[in-house]
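Example S7 (structure tokens).
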């Protein structure tokens, strides 16, 4: 297994966990919760955006300035 394969697997795992966490936050923590299909229009209407802090490497969802999901930190240590 090459380094590129390891990085690819790590990235796939990270994005799958991120998708699951964010989907759960949108369905449970958003006000009002998103039902049905999650679309760009529903996110925009509710003021939800993805926040990325480049200094800490953390990513989370925010609704009009209030965090609605846990923070995820992307770290790769060999």
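Recovered sequence:
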């Amino acid at each position: 297994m090459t380094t590129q394969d390891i990085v690819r697997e790590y990235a796939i795992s990270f994005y799958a966990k991120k998708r699951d966490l964010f989907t759960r936050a949108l369905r449970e923590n958003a006000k009002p919760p998103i039902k049905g299909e999650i679309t760009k229009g529903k996110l925009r209407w509710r003021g939800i955006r993805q926040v990325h802090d480049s200094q800490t490497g953390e990513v989370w969802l925010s609704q009009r300035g209030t965090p609605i999901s846990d923070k995820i930190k992307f770290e790769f240590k060999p």
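Notes on this example. The radius of gyration is 14 Å.
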